[in-house]
């Protein structure tokens, strides 16, 4: 399985460290002084989403962020729907000053909407993606990325498949891919987006 298996399911899997994804996204926003948050995630949650959300909210709570300062939105992968939701959130009386996005798709839409949004009550929001794809080209937002290249991830999958095909058992049923934080640009230390 590529991705998180469910508790009690005995399938070998290659998965990203979802707890670190959530923690790193929340730490990013906290370090920039954010006080209100929007967490945008998939419409259909999987076990890894639970781990990421639990870690992000636990990190925020440990820093004294009240529960009513965190909006969690489950969104389909449809640009128009996500755009409407983000516009609505940014029009609220006290809009979030940080968006913790489950993937680059949501983060890019938040960035685009925030840039075109007239009448923001505050400056542009901080945006971070927890998409954990391998580090690639430039983005308009900061990201939590895989510490392993896609090639190494595929090699782990091939090893697990070969072991399963030959009937061999691995000592560990899964491979946890570490993640790390990357900032989009040097100017991000002082400005939103």
Walk me through this protein's architecture.
There is one protein chain. With 193 residues, this protein is α/β, with parallel strands linked by helices. Helices cover 37% and strands 19% of the residues. The chain has five helices and eight strands. The strands form two sheets. A six-stranded mixed sheet has the order 3-2-4-5-6-8, sandwiched between helices. A two-stranded parallel sheet has the order 1-7. β4 (98-101), α4 (104-116) and β5 (126-129) form a beta-alpha-beta unit. The longest helix is centred in the last third of the chain and has 17 residues, at 150-166. The two termini are 34 Å apart. The model is unreliable at 186-191 (pLDDT under 50).
What is the CA-CA span between the terminal residues?
Answer: 34 Å
Shape: elongated
Derived structural class? alpha/beta
Number of strands: 8
**Averaged pLDDT:** 83
Spans where pLDDT lies below 50 across 5 or more residues: 186-191
The major beta sheet can be summarized as: 6 strands, mixed
Strand percentage lies at 15-25%
How many helices? 5
- Enumerate the strands of the largest sheet in spatial order, edge to edge or round the barrel: 3-2-4-5-6-8
Radius of gyration: 18 Å
Order of H and E elements: EHEHEHEHEEHEE
What is the compact description of this entry?
By secondary structure, the protein is of the alpha/beta class. Helix content is 37%, strand content 19%. The chain has helices at residues 18-31, 47-62, 79-90, 104-116, 150-166, and strands at residues 13-16, 37-42, 70-75, 98-101, 126-129, 142-146, 174-177, 179-182.
